[in-house]
Write a structure and sequence with these properties.
The protein is globular. By secondary structure, it is an alpha+beta fold. α9 crosses α14. The protein is 23% helix and 33% strand. The protein contains 15 helices and 35 strands.
């Protein structure tokens, strides 16, 4: 049976997983209602976080499909997958056209010599413009330096949600058969000599409580056999011996245990506890390792530490520094985009922390959300961008930002991003919408996404991609608001919160427990304000219309992990427990904060 290996790549929310699910259902590999986004966080957020393998059978051909994430923070997942497949289906939204991650994943595909199949998806949207999208995709191919063969890409039009595809817009279609036929026509059979010495390169890792670390990869050459002795090789590294204890292939979304697999097949293997992405598994010790898989470096860092707030330790099962360290070590087993410095450091108050490096705020917030659901309590510092120094010059990460907004919001968005050192590179208007393209330091983008959602009334789309390290641009003012800090401990009272509403935005509800130094809201004036959220209404035996005024509170702006990471400042910690997300000052008492401020000024 022939094997074809494909990956589905696109910008976030352009329909990759929906299309994969529809292909699986049509070929009878899964039941109705199944989705490849099996992780609870993926289902809640509506995005793919982890690359996943599946397969389907069509016309006596096995098609291995890898569904990849679309968000830039999980780009490391995509980079690895592209080395193991024969071509990609590049999905582009028929209304939005190419977006930042479209450019990122297409560039990686073209550099590897792949010949993409372009899927113009969501043709059922009212504002869809497939012809314009086709032209924009062609321009993108030319801009990224595609060769003549790559520019002559096949195009198919689809609606993942309806489960239909067509070669031309005027064609009739009732299912995805035209797309499956196109894959067989344009994707070459996955090759490799099955009689040559074994060479296989993992592009993904998994973990099993019984089998330990699992490696997922394509058998490039030879045949992998259960129980075989193998060698693990990487350029510049010592060769390690190992033994294969289990081999799994994929049928639909099921793992099927197998005794062997030949060149071209994508498999999952067990028995190699130290295997890592990009290393080469060989049967012959003299074999040359395959080219290494490069993964982009992290761009932000923050400190993880024990939650030592006055309310710390009440919700969580895992609260110690040792437990946090063990959890981060487990995360490194499978999360390749993450790095951790396990050499414990001490902050000024003696607390031990571990420095975690990630690809972006979403990348870190997903890890923190998983930890809190597992019962961990942790406290983190403000995210900081990673600054490099080359030839005596400071360099910082920059991002390309695309903002799609209604015309009426253009001035507000341009002004805000310009203040954050963003440079407007391009601007064009289409049917009442304007697309703004900026290049901006990652420092300037941190903390802006929520502000963007507010100023565009939830109707704008903001996307970004990392474009490289560039000269440092100096100071950037990210926050123009102050913090509303509780000066007492106890339970918040509605009357006190009502009186504070005119000062700014509230994060908490009446009855919530607070402590001295906890941040309960922000102040529009830009300076920190110490407040008493427990101040009760003065009682008297006189009744007047003013004293009997009804207390009607506006809805609060509750803190989430992502929101907290965006709005927190350098002198604050984000406290994360299974039940609560809180912001607090590093120094809880007003006296300690004043003392710390005086010390900073002296230095």
């Amino acid at each position: 049976m022939e094997i074809r290996n494909i990956a589905i790549i696109a910008h976030v929310d352009h329909g990759k997983t929906t299309l994969t699910d529809a292909l699986m259902r049509q070929t009878g590999m899964v039941e109705e209602g199944f989705t490849m986004d099996t992780n609870a966080l993926e289902q809640e957020r509506g995005i793919t976080i982890y690359a996943k393998n599946g397969s389907l059978f069509y016309k006596n051909t096995k098609i291995n499909i890898v569904d990849t994430p679309g968000h830039a923070d999980f780009g490391s997942e995509v980079e690895r997958v592209l080395r193991a497949i024969d071509t990609v289906l590049l999905l582009v939204d028929a209304q939005e056209g190419p977006m930042p991650q479209t450019r990122f994943v297409l560039k990686k595909s073209l550099e590897l010599g792949l010949k993409p199949i372009v899927v113009i998806n969501k043709i059922d949207k009212p504002a869809a413009d497939p012809d314009r999208t086709h032209e924009e995709v062609l321009e993108l191919f030319l801009e990224l330096g595609a060769n003549n063969e790559q520019i002559d890409f096949p195009v198919i039009y689809a609606s993942s949600r309806q489960g239909i595809a067509k070669r031309k817009m005027i064609d009739e279609s009732k299912d995805l058969t035209p797309m499956l036929d196109l894959i067989l026509e344009h994707v070459p059979p996955s090759g490799g000599n099955p009689t040559a010495p074994l060479r296989m390169q993992p592009f993904n890792l998994a973990y099993d409580n019984f089998l330990g670390r699992l490696a997922v990869g394509k058998v490039e050459e030879g045949t992998i056999v259960n129980g075989a002795q193998v060698f693990i090789k990487a350029k510049g590294e010592e060769t390690i011996k190992g033994k294969i204890t289990k081999i799994f292939t994929f049928e639909g979304m099921k793992r099927i245990e197998s005794e062997k697999a030949e060149a071209g097949e994508i498999v999952m293997i067990a028995g190699l506890p130290t295997i890592y992405i990009g290393e080469t598994i060989c049967s012959d010790e003299s074999s040359e390792p395959l080219p290494a898989i490069a993964v982009d470096e992290p761009t932000i860092s923050l400190n993880f530490m024990v939650n030592d707030s006055p309310l710390g330790g009440r919700d969580g099962k895992f609260v110690t520094s040792r437990q946090i360290k063990e959890r981060l070590e487990r995360e490194l087993e499978t999360n390749v985009g993450l790095k951790v410095n396990f050499s414990p450091s001490e902050v000024t108050d003696g607390a031990i922390y571990y420095t975690v490096y990630g690809r972006g705020e979403l990348h870190i917030s997903v890890l923190l959300e998983q930890m809190r659901r597992e019962g961990f309590e942790v406290q983190v510092s403000e995210p900081q961008v990673i600054i490099k120094e080359e030839n005596g010059e400071k360099l910082e990460p920059f991002e390309e930002v695309i903002a799609d907004v209604h015309n009426e919001y253009v001035g507000t968005v341009v002004s805000a991003l310009s203040e954050r050192r963003g440079l407007l590179m391009n601007q064009h208007e289409h049917q009442g919408q304007t697309r703004l393209i900026f290049e901006i330091p990652t420092r300037g983008l941190l903390g802006y996404r929520n502000e963007f959602t507010v100023v565009t009334k939830g109707e704008g789309i903001l996307s970004s991609r990392f474009v490289g390290f560039r000269p440092h641009v100096g100071e950037i003012v990210r926050h123009n608001f102050g913090s509303m800090i509780s000066m007492t401990s106890g339970k918040a009272v509605a009357f006190a919160l009502w009186n504070l509403e005119e000062r700014g935005t509230r994060y908490i509800e009446p009855g919530e427990e607070v402590y001295e130094g906890m941040i309960i809201g922000n102040v529009t004036r830009g300076e920190d304000l110490d407040v008493n959220p427990m101040k009760a209404k003065q009682l008297s035996n006189m009744r007047t219309s003013s004293t009997d005024e009804a207390i009607i509170l506006a809805a609060p702006w509750p803190l989430s992990i992502e929101r907290g990471l965006e709005i927190m400042k350098s002198d604050e910690y984000l406290e994360i427990t299974p039940k609560n997300v809180r912001l607090r000052k590093k120094y809880l008492s007003k006296t300690d904060r004043a003392r710390a401020g005086r010390k900073e000024n002296k230095e």
